[in-house]
Design goal:
The protein is mainly alpha-helical. Helices cover 45% and strands 0% of the residues. The termini are far apart.
Length: 131
């Protein structure tokens, strides 16, 4: 079965596998349980993760993945966030959480950003469970 796997084909298969792995969403690599701990330590002061929760300092993040930006009822979004448009995807959340003010100048979120890539992947994995 493997006799047709020449060194060139093996190399091509390895490259193709690496490309596919790199294309997977960031959440696929994360640990949701570890992400919940990151959320509790760094996000829960301002955000709730509970369904139907009222905003604290920021909007609830229950159901954030797949939600249109600036649409959580009962929260007064900044003009910058209202103008952002689009939907919160795992990739978009990852970019935003890493550097909120740099990613979207004018937002009210004063958080400096989550710089640890593993913690960020774990957090995104956790946010994907909030449905």
């Amino acid at each position: 079965m493997f006799r047709f796997l020449t060194p060139a084909r093996l190399s091509a298969a390895i490259v193709a596998g690496a490309v596919l792995a790199a294309a997977l969403p960031a959440a696929a690599a994360g640990d949701a349980a570890a992400g919940k701990a990151v959320f509790t330590a760094q996000c829960a002061v301002c955000h709730s993760a509970a369904k139907g929760a009222k905003p604290i300092l920021g909007p609830t993040l229950f159901g954030v993945v797949g939600r249109k930006t600036a649409t959580m009822p009962g929260f007064a979004y900044s003009p910058a966030m209202k103008a952002a448009g689009g939907v919160w995807t795992s990739d978009r959340l990852s970019t935003y959480i890493a550097a909120p003010a740099k990613t979207l100048p004018g937002v009210r979120m004063t958080y400096g950003g989550l710089k640890n890539p593993a913690q960020l992947q774990n957090l995104i994995a956790y946010l994907n469970t909030l449905k």
